[in-house]
UniProtKB/TrEMBL annotation:
Coiled-coil intervals, chain numbering: none
Keyword Hydrolase assigned: yes
Pfam family, one: Zn_ribbon_NUD
Assigned keywords, A-Z: Hydrolase, Magnesium, Metal-binding, NAD
SUPFAM superfamilies on file: Nudix (SSF55811)
Annotated ranges, domain Nudix hydrolase: 145-270
Listed name of the protein: NAD(+) diphosphatase
Organism of provenance: Actinopolyspora mortivallis
GO MF annotations, alphabetized: metal ion binding; NADH pyrophosphatase activity
UniProt GO cellular component terms: cytosol
Taxonomic lineage of the native organism: Bacteria, Bacillati, Actinomycetota, Actinomycetes, Actinopolysporales
GO BP terms: NAD+ catabolic process; NADP+ catabolic process
Enzyme class: hydrolase
Catalytic reactions on record: a 5'-end NAD(+)-phospho-ribonucleoside in mRNA + H2O = a 5'-end phospho-adenosine-phospho-ribonucleoside in mRNA + beta-nicotinamide D-ribonucleotide + 2 H(+)
Amino acid sequence: MSRSPVELADAPRDDPAAAAELWRHGRVLLVDERGRTPAAPSGALRWWEPAELGNRPDAVLLGVHEGIARWAVRTPARDSGPEWRDLRLLGDWLGDAEAGLLTTAVGLLAWHDRARYCAVCGAGTERVRNGWARRCGGCLHEEYPRTDPSMICLVHDGADRVLLARKAGWPDERFSVLAGFVEVGESLEGCVRREVREEVGVRVSGIRYLGSQPWPFPRSLMVGFAAEADPDEPLRPADGEIAEAHWVHRDLVRKALEESGPVHGIRLPPGISIAHRMLRGWVLRQG
């Protein structure tokens, strides 16, 4: 979901005439309140002609791809059926452009659902800039879509073992790398050190940036890192947060990535996630 080639098209957001033209010749994605959209059995998204939907002042402009404006509108969940699937199910099937468009649609529409009142004075807000801002009807304060930065870190021993953990409340076999939200005044690297220490009790070094992924559940940006830790340092899973943590050999990780089911009691994140790609990259690097 971090590979989108779509142009976000900032200029038409403030130009009603340009936006109207983009709407007239654009394509529209329907997204229900659960973040689902209609898709073909192959995973391809279904796009509507604007004329099929009539006047939709609630439409949000996702961007422009291959000269065609892409929009999204909210539809009630009661109007959706079995062909409606969410981003978690569709992510592995979608191409770069559609993955990015659906990610933007889910995140942007979810923000509108939660930003109907002004954070300054409490009055109602209205959507402006073709869905990329909301303006207060009382004090005229403007709010913009929010993204919460979160670090996700692949901790390894510098050789053939990686640290995997199972969060409290997850199914018994579900494991992943460590992650946590960045706090106010904290750097990304500082978040890596703090979260790993808090969650499993070990210290890391050699922190290295790997990549990022927008994660609209509901509005995170996952920033990926790798770091080294001493496997002889005792693991102390955080009570109530981490159910268990283990050092796992590369060969077992490789097998678990290849299988859809659990391998020796370990099921890894699906291919849509940055965690999966981080683990796969570590396995392929052989060091």
